[in-house]
Design a protein that fits this description.
The structure is a single chain. The strands form four sheets. Strands 4-11-10-9-8-5-6-7 form an eight-stranded mixed beta sheet, sandwiched between helices. A four-stranded antiparallel beta sheet has the order 12-13-16-15, with helices on one face. Strand 5, helix 8 and strand 6 form a beta-alpha-beta unit. Helices cover about 40% and strands about 15% of the residues. The chain is globular. By secondary structure, the protein is α/β, with parallel strands linked by helices. It folds into three domains: about 70 residues, Winged helix-like DNA-binding domain superfamily/Winged helix DNA-binding domain (Arc Repressor Mutant, subunit A); about 120 residues, Aspartate Aminotransferase, domain 1 (Alpha-Beta Complex), CATH 3.90.1150.10; about 240 residues, 3-Layer(aba) Sandwich (Aspartate Aminotransferase, domain 2), CATH 3.40.640.
């Protein structure tokens, strides 16, 4: 029972502490007979003299008592019940189900299913999607703007701020969106949030009651699905093809949906770009159904062919489109700043929920970002990143064609920071084996399966390229080809 522990100190002290702990925890009850010294010495793999020392110390402190001819027993009255050690720390992963939590929290606990990913430390080539080229971000400019804002820090700037965001940041965001995306807005309709994930959460809390229907793309962004499910929504999947969401093929239940979630400019995860006719059809459906459309425009800045398509919100004449944007894909994910452009009737309720949630987004980061956009650095950075991403995208397309030929079909390569590689001759159930084989060889590739409520048509991978060099992309795909040829 009392084996050598991994504690520090002489062996007899380790055994003494272990036995004392067992007595105080009740593992050895008062009056229980202890093993004979010879028996315990054999079990612990130590000399009998060591056990004698342990028993002597326990006896001297009153934890055990000896009876001539009968043996050694746990004392019936312990000397320091008040010093009983606290229960062992329970690891979070081993904790029992919580008691008394809300239905919302319970839904969130159950449905939250982060996509398993290999450790970046073990990867030589990581095709992680959604990650911009952070190595090329103009950090020197950002640091200079940070230093300038720090010099302006005062009692006035350290107070609570408007939950909608700093006025100057809202102004420069509105100006940029009108210029770059034709979004119909001014600063009065912009709310600064902690990333697009908070934007989706605020929308769900404002518009969804348990049991309400929400139309989602199939496949779709997992973060949106989980937010809506946590709010108690019933999801209505609508098919996606090479032109994105096809509202004409929506199930009958879509007619009762409170809102539709879509990624028209670069469908996530397939990368499809929704043409004008589909956008107008989506707006017509919203008018007929009396539903809102949530337009997640997460990486529209990066388009590599054809004329930029204006936002769905720019076509909206009835105030039913909620526009969501983020700086995570254009600048860097750790910034945690996004924005909402809302129809006027939704401003007050969303601001009330934002205020209750976190009061406001951190003002120092907002001030720096306002300068970064307002002084022209943002658009210059986006132009450079678009050029770099185009080269990396071309390197990935060339490598996939050279290594896999016609056995891989590419989808969604004309925009964004990732594409989808479909393995034509492999069923969807093979995706996990492909991912595991790649990871074992030091390559990070990511399955498309979690983004479907149904089963994908075949094995598919999301391959990001913006955070890799062209050389790394080429070498990574060549190695992937060799690994899959040997392992599958």
């Amino acid at each position: 029972m009392f084996i050598r522990s991994d504690q520090a100190g002489p062996i007899y002290q380790q055994l003494y502490r272990r036995m004392r702990e067992a007595i105080l925890r009740g593992e050895l009850q008062p009056g229980a007979r202890l093993p004979a010294t010879r028996t315990l010495a054999e079990d612990a793999g130590v000399s009998r003299n060591t056990i004698l020392l342990v028993y002597d110390q326990l006896r001297a402190e009153g934890y055990v008592e000896g009876h001539v001819g009968a043996g050694t027993f746990v004392a019936r009255e312990l000397p320091d019940d008040v010093l009983r050690p606290a229960p062992r720390t329970v690891r979070v992963d081993d904790a029992p189900p919580p008691l008394g939590i809300s239905a919302y929290a319970n839904r969130a606990r159950i449905i939250l299913s982060p996509v398993a990913a290999p450790s970046a430390a073990n990867l030589r080539y990581d095709f992680r999607y959604g990650l911009p080229g952070v190595a090329e971000f103009p950090r020197d400019i950002w640091r200079r703007l940070l230093a300038r804002q720090a010099k302006r820090f005062s009692a006035e700037t350290s107070r609570y701020a408007d939950p909608a965001g700093l006025p100057r940041l809202r102004q420069v965001i509105a100006d940029y969106l009108r210029r770059a995306r034709a979004v119909d807005c001014d600063e009065s309709r912009v709310i600064v949030v902690n990333g697009s994930q908070q934007a989706l959460d605020l929308i769900a809390r404002t518009l969804i009651d348990p049991g309400d229907r929400v139309l989602v793309e199939e496949p779709h962004y997992l973060g949106a699905r989980e937010v809506f499910q946590a709010a108690g929504a019933r999801l209505v999947p609508c098919p996606v093809d090479d032109d994105g969401l096809d509202i004409e093929r929506a199930p009958k239940a879509a007619g009762q949906a409170r809102l539709a979630y879509a990624t028209p400019s670069h469908q996530f995860p397939t990368g499809a770009v929704m043409p004008l006719a589909r956008r107008l059809a989506l707006l017509a459906w919203a008018r007929k159904s009396g539903a809102y459309v949530v337009e997640d425009d997460y990486d529209s800045e990066f388009r590599y062919g054809g004329r930029p398509v204006e936002a769905v919100q720019a076509l909206d004449t009835t105030g039913q489109v909620i526009y969501v944007g983020t700086m995570s894909k254009t600048l860097f994910p750790a910034l945690r700043i996004g924005f909402l452009v809302l129809p006027p009737p939704l401003m007050k309720p969303v601001l009330a929920i934002k205020h209750l949630s976190d009061r406001h987004t951190a003002t120092l980061q907002q001030s720096i970002l306002a300068d970064f956009i307002g002084e022209g650095y943002f658009e210059r950075h986006v132009r450079r990143a678009r050029t770099q991403n185009a080269r990396r995208r071309a390197a990935l397309l060339e490598a996939l064609a050279r290594v896999f030929g016609d056995s891989v079909a590419v989808q969604g390569s004309n925009a964004g920071l990732h594409l989808v590689a479909w393995f034509r001759d492999r069923p969807a159930t093979d995706t996990a084996r492909i991912v595991d084989t790649a990871a074992a060889g030091g390559i990070g590739v990511y399955p498309i399966n979690p983004y479907y409520l149904s089963e994908p048509p075949s094995a598919g991978l999301l391959l990001g390229y913006a955070a890799m060099s062209e050389r790394e992309i080429d070498a990574g795909i060549r190695l992937l080809g060799r690994l899959l040829e040997r392992g599958m």
